[in-house]
UniProtKB/TrEMBL annotation:
Its cofactor is Mn(2+); Mg(2+). The lineage of its organism: Eukaryota, Fungi, Dikarya, Ascomycota, Pezizomycotina. It comes from Cudoniella acicularis. This is Malic enzyme. Belongs to the malic enzymes family. InterPro entries: Aminoacid_DH-like_N_sf, Malic_enzyme_CS, Malic_N_dom, Malic_N_dom_sf, Malic_NAD-bd, Malic_OxRdtase, NAD(P)-bd_dom_sf.
C-alpha cells in the first residue's frame, strides 16, 4: 500500500484536494493557491473547532451525516483527522446507526456519486467501466448489491452508503489510504416496490435479476477488478444471499464476506471474553440464535471452531446451537425445505415437538447465550430477558442487529431486566446506563473491530487469498487486545479509542497466518519480529495527523510537477 509518491501522477489521483487554511504561505505560493483561501494560516485545532461547531449546529443525525460527507469530499485529510480525534462521537454518524437512515434517504440526500455504480445492463463491458474510475491504483473495494442493507432490507443502489461507510472505517481504523479505496455498488434491480415507484430513485427500474444472472455478473466483475487492479482485496457486504459467491471466490481471489466472516470473527472475540466470566463450561454452553441468516450462521460456525479447539468434537460443538428463523426453531422434521446454510445447525433432538415462539424456545433450551441477528427490534423483551437472568448468573446477551432501531433489545433493557448481570454486546452503539449507581458501558460487537485489520493485513502481505484460518486468527488477535482493566470494567471489546492499535495487531496476526500458510507474497517482512512487523505496518498506515494534503518537497522539479497535479485535482 504505497503512499502517493511525490510525483504528479499520484497527486492527480488523490481524491479531495482543496485549498486548505492550514497550508503555509510557502505552500500556498508553490501551489499558486495564495488568495484562494482566507489569509490566516490556521492550526488543525482551530479548523477542528470550526468543524465541530458546524456539526453541532446541525440538529438531526442525517444533517450531521450530510455535513460529514461533504467534509470528506472537500477536505479528506481534515475529515479523517477529525474522525480519529473524535472516533466514538463520529463513528455512529458516518457508520451504524446513521448510515442506515442515510441509505433509506439516499435518493433524497444524494449530492455526489461517492463510488462506482455498475448496472446489470453494463454486463459485457464491466472492465471498461471499472477503468473509468479516476484513481489508477485501487487496493481495496467494498461491494454490495444493496439487497440486505443492515436490517433494513432491499434498498437497491441506495445501499451505496454502506461501502462508503465501511471504507471510511478502513481509512479511519486501519489507515488504508482513502485514494486506494473503491466503494462499489452493483445495480441488479430491486424488489423494493416503494423504490421502484420513487421518481427520485436512481437505480434500474426493474425487479432483481435471478441468482444465476447475479452469479454471472459477479464472475465478470471479479475478473474485471482483478485485471484492472491485480490482487485487489474485495469485501462483499450486505448481500441477501452471500453464500454462493463466497464459496465460488474465496480460494480464487483475495476476498472475504464481512457479514459471514467478519461478523463471525468479531463475535467470537466477544464470546471468548464473555466465557471468562461464565460459570458454565464450554461443553455445557447452550446458544439460541434468533436469526439464521448470513451473520447468524457465520457467527455460530466461528464459535464451533473455537469450541473444537477447546476440546469438543465437531458434533458436540454443533449441538450447542439452536437456530430460530421466521418459522420457529429449525429442526429436521419441521416440514419445510431448509435453505442450504441452515442445514448444519438443524436440530434432530426435538422429539417431534415444534417450537414457534422465542419464549417457548428459551424454555425448551434454557440457553446460556442469546444471540440476535434477526433484525427484530424488541424480540428480546422483558419476559425473555428475565428468563435469561433467572437461568444464569451471567447470561450472555448479544442483540447484534443493525441499525439501533432493529436491535433485539437496548442496553438499558438488557441491564434493567437482568439486574445488571448480562454480558452484553450490540451491533450499534448504545449510551452508558447507570445501574444501582454504577455506570455500565455497552460493548459494541460490530465487525468494524476486525474488517479493517483483515483488509490491511491482506493488502500488506499481498496474500493470494484470504483463508478461513486468517479470519479465525483475526478473532483471537482481537480478543487478545482486550486489556485486563477493560475486562474488569465489564467490557468485552477494547475501547474504540484505540482502534488503530487494535487494527495493527489484527493485521499482524492476519499476516502471520498468511505466512504460515505460504499465501503471502511479500518476502521482505517474513523475518521481522512481531515488534518490527507492528512498526512496519504502522509506517504503511495513512495518518491524517501527518498529512495535510501536500508534502514537503525536495526538488524544484518535484514541486513544479506536484503543484500542477494538485491544481488539476482541485480544478484550480
Ligand atoms: N453486529 C454486526 O457486526 C453485524 C450485524 N448484522 C445484522 O444482523 C442482522 C441480520 O443480518 P443477516 O444475517 O446478514 O441477514 P439475513 O437476511 O441473512 O438473515 C436474517 C435472519 O433473521 C430471520 N428473521 C427475520 N425476521 C424474523 C422473525 N420475525 N423471527 C425470527 N427470525 C426472523 C430470518 O429468517 C433470517 O434467518 C441485520 O440486522 C444486520 O444488520 C449483520 C452483520 C454484522
Ligand atoms: C455491521 C454490518 O455489517 C451489518 O449490519 O450488516
Ligand atoms: Mg454488513
Amino acid at each position: 500500500m504505497p503512499r502517493p509518491s511525490k510525483s504528479s501522477t499520484a497527486y492527480r489521483q488523490s481524491r479531495a484536494f482543496h485549498p486548505d487554511t492550514s497550508h503555509s504561505i510557502e505552500t500556498r505560493k508553490s501551489l499558486r493557491t495564495l488568495g484562494l483561501t482566507p489569509p490566516n494560516v490556521e492550526s488543525y485545532e482551530l479548523q477542528a473547532q470550526r468543524c465541530m461547531k458546524q456539526l453541532e449546529s446541525k440538529t438531526s443525525p442525517i444533517e450531521k451525516y450530510i455535513y460529514l460527507s461533504n467534509l470528506r469530499n472537500s477536505n479528506v485529510h481534515l475529515f479523517y483527522r477529525l474522525v480519529l480525534d473524535n472516533f466514538s462521537t463520529l463513528t455512529p454518524l458516518i457508520y451504524t446507526p446513521v448510515v442506515g437512515e442515510a441509505c433509506l434517504k439516499w435518493s433524497e440526500i444524494y449530492q455526489q456519486p461517492e463510488g462506482l455504480y455498475l448496472s446489470y445492463k453494463d454486463r459485457g463491458s464491466l472492465k471498461e467501466i471499472v477503468q473509468n474510475w479516476p484513481q489508477q491504483n485501487v487496493e481495496m473495494t467494498v461491494v454490495t448489491d444493496g439487497s440486505r442493507i443492515l436490517g433494513l432490507g432491499d434498498l437497491g443502489i441506495n445501499g451505496m452508503g454502506i461501502p462508503v461507510g465501511k471504507l471510511a472505517l478502513y481509512t479511519g481504523c486501519a489507515g488504508i489510504r482513502p485514494e486506494v479505496t473503491l466503494p462499489l455498488t452493483i445495480d441488479l434491480g430491486t424488489n423494493n416496490e416503494a423504490l421502484l415507484k420513487d421518481p427520485l430513485y436512481m437505480g434500474s427500474r426493474r425487479t432483481r435479476v435471478s441468482e444465476r444472472e447475479e452469479a454471472m455478473f459477479l464472475d465478470e466483475l471479479m475478473v474485471a477488478l482483478n485485471e484492472v487492479w491485480p490482487g485487489i482485496v474485495v469485501q462483499f457486504e450486505d448481500f441477501k444471499n452471500p453464500f454462493p459467491a463466497l464459496e465460488r471466490y474465496q480460494n480464487k481471489y483475495c476476498c472475504f464476506n464481512d457479514d459471514i466472516q467478519g461478523t463471525g470473527a468479531v463475535i467470537l472475540a466477544g464470546i471468548i471474553a464473555a466465557l471468562r466470566n461464565s460459570e458454565t463450561p464450554v461443553k455445557d454452553q447452550r446458544a439460541v440464535f434468533m436469526g439464521a441468516g448470513s451473520a447468524g450462521v457465520g457467527v455460530a460456525k466461528q464459535i464451533v471452531e473455537y469450541f473444537m479447539k477447546e476440546g469438543l468434537t465437531e458434533d458436540e460443538a454443533r449441538r450447542c446451537f439452536w437456530f430460530v428463523d421466521t418459522k420457529g426453531l429449525i429442526t429436521n422434521d419441521r416440514g419445510d425445505k431448509l435453505a442450504q446454510h441452515k442445514v448444519y445447525f438443524s436440530r434432530d433432538d426435538n422429539k417431534g415437538q415444534q417450537f414457534k415462539t422465542l419464549s417457548e424456545i428459551v424454555d425448551h433450551v434454557k440457553p446460556t447465550i442469546l444471540m440476535g441477528l434477526s433484525t427484530m427490534r424488541g424480540i428480546f423483551n422483558e419476559s425473555i430477558l428475565k428468563k435469561m437472568a433467572a437461568m444464569d448468573k451471567r447470561p450472555i446477551i448479544f442483540p447484534l442487529s443493525n441499525p439501533s432501531s432493529n436491535s433485539e433489545c437496548t442496553f438499558e433493557e438488557a441491564m434493567k431486566f437482568t439486574d445488571g448481570r448480562a454480558m452484553f454486546a450490540s451491533g450499534s452503539p448504545f449510551p452508558d446506563y447507570i445501574h444501582n449507581g454504577k455506570v455500565m458501558h455497552a460493548s459494541q460487537g460490530n465487525n468494524m473491530y476486525v474488517f479493517p485489520g483483515i483488509g490491511l493485513g491482506s493488502i500488506l502481505c499481498k496474500t493470494a487469498h484470504i483463508s478461513q484460518e486468517m479470519i479465525y486468527t483475526s478473532a483471537v488477535a482481537l480478543s487478545n487486545t482486550l486489556r485486563e482493566d477493560e475486562f474488569a470494567s465489564g467490557m468485552l471489546y477494547p475501547s474504540l479509542d484505540r482502534i488503530r492499535s487494535v487494527s495493527i495487531v489484527v493485521a499482524r496476526e492476519v499476516i502471520r497466518e498468511a505466512q504460515r500458510q505460504r499465501l503471502d507474497r511479500e518476502p521482505s517482512i517474513r523475518n521481522l519480529s512481531d515488534a518490527e512487523l507492528d512498526e512496519w505496518i504502522s509506517t504503511k498506515m495513512y495518518d491524517p495527523r501527518k498529512d495535510n494534503g501536500f508534502p514537503e518537497l525536495e526538488t524544484r522539479e518535484e514541486t513544479r510537477e506536484a503543484t500542477a497535479a494538485y491544481r488539476m485535482a482541485a480544478r484550480l
